[in-house]
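Note to self: keep these together.
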Amino acid sequence: MKRTSLFGVAFSIWMAMHSVTFARDRSAFQLAKEGDQYVGVQSKDRIVQIRSDKSVGSLTPFVWYVVYYDPNAALKAVEVKFNGDKMVDVQRPLRLLEPVTGGDLPLDRDKLKIDSDEALRIASQEPALQNLQLTAAKFKLERVGEGVLGRGPSEPVWKIELWGATRSNPAKEAHLGEVWVSAADGKVVKDDLHFHGL
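Structure:
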């Protein structure tokens, strides 16, 4: 193989690796803003929920779902799925309970101040986690009902599930529970951590 061909192959591999790294660095709010171009005018910036799959190989998930309010849809929602920074699907999700619980309404944009990366940083600083090696995370941003947290009106909250390496075998991981971080002010509003299996 010619030297130029080898260089081309190496460069392609390097670009692929770095594009994945870049994709993993995209925050949830950045993806939500990009998702605006895949929904109708009536849905832009009207975020109902953001969630992710469990991350793999880092604490930043690769697969994200952004749900927007759509007054023209039967269940009032349109969902955009991202793999990294690539939009891969747009669909009308089946959200049957949300209209009953109020979870189908847009989140207050003025309260969306804490992005996913900052919420993760805050959650990982919980004292109970300081001596643990975190291995994976899963995110959900949604409205928490009025009075649920004893904080008055409903507000958007990041619910972050965490996993960590076990002490007996660092190659294995255990589910550590969940930390809730307010998207409005960055305060931890609920800590439901457990350490069974470590």
